[in-house]
Amino acid sequence: MSLEGKTVLVIGGSSGIGQAVSRKAARLGARLLLVARDSAKLESAATELRRQGAQVTTQAMDAADPQALARFCAAAEDIDHAISMVGGAMGGGFLANSEEAVRQAIEEKFFAALRIARAIAPKLHEGGSLTLTSGAGGRPHSASGAIVGNAAIRTLAEGLAVELAPRIRVNAVAPTWMDTPLWRNVPREQTEQTRAYFNKTIPLGRTATTDEVADAYLFAMTCTFLTGHTLVIDGGGWDWSPDCRRFSKAGGFRFRRRQTGLAHPLRHPGADGGNLGRRSKRGRKI
């Protein structure tokens, strides 16, 4: 893989997964344009990258602010790949949360991503890519609005992949829960309880590191025949429901694949050039 001579925009590149993506992209030769809300953290991340020899430009702003985003994009140029880490989190079911809270969660995930895609796509060079962030942690009854937002982003990636083809590729990455700055306001005890839960329910027996998830973003950027897909980085968690574990312990071994938002629920994310849900000559989906 090489990003030599390419400019990579990372929205949310000052910490967590975004910072790991920036670090790995720089090692592959990319010039970096980092955007984040916290100017102090942004400059700290940029300084660290420059020490390692990276060429870094920064812009402190809230990418979820439509006016700030419009001003940034009006001045931006020379972008090959764009990655958006914009999103949010929420807990609780649909009945436990107010309608306003559910709407806000969807706004922070889906509509923020849609605005970014609309604004950034015209600035991307031909052959470039846009990678959005979805999510794979939680279930509808425990993360309601966030789950709706994640599903909407997967649908957005599929739609934009066709609308922007063949000039731009569009994909999404869906990490499961991991301890990142997104959860900075959650009590540490609750964070540790959540970690223990996922350690038990993920077949690999642990949560991912930021570097492991960052690799998926690098793959989405550099695989030139990958578009319209959501790469689920969850250690097999979506395949490993409680009844599957009971079945396995009883002597059987069988996965029950959950719907992942792809055109066919049994199809793994892969490189098919965006050829989702195509039909055979007989008109059946294949």
From TrEMBL:
Question: What's this protein's name?
Answer: SDR family oxidoreductase
Which segments carry the region annotation Disordered? 259-286
According to its UniProt entry, this protein's organism is Acerihabitans sp. KWT182
Name the InterPro entries on file: KR_dom, NAD(P)-bd_dom_sf, SDR_DHRS6-like, SDR_fam
Q: Which domain of life is it from?
A: Bacteria
- Which stretches make up the Ketoreductase domain? 6-171
Q: Which residues form a coiled coil?
A: none
Q: Which Pfam families match?
A: adh_short_C2
Single annotated GO MF = oxidoreductase activity
SMART domains per the UniProt record, alphabetical: PKS_KR
Keyword annotations of the record = Oxidoreductase
The UniProt family comment states: Belongs to the short-chain dehydrogenases/reductases (SDR) family.
